[in-house]
Amino acid sequence: MSSRDQSSRLYRAFQLFADAAAVSAAVDARRQPPAGALTRLGIDPEAFGRIRRF
Predict the structure, then answer these.
(1) Is the pLDDT of residue 42 over 70?
(2) What is the residue-wise DSSP string for the chain?
(3) What's the CA gap between 38 and 54, in Å, rounded?
(4) Is the pLDDT of residue 47 over 80?
């Protein structure tokens, strides 16, 4: 494995954690999370928007 592959994997791991944190913070504040963050986490933004809040 080259150092470029390792750097790319490390960047992707940090990006996933950052996306999860952004989505979590938005949900906690009762806001719509960024569509890009949802997509990178494998969540359909349209389907997420249809979730009922209690």
Answers:
(1) yes
(2) --HHHHHHHHHHHHHHHHHHHHHHHHHHTT-PPPHHHHHHTT--HHHHHT----
(3) 21
(4) yes
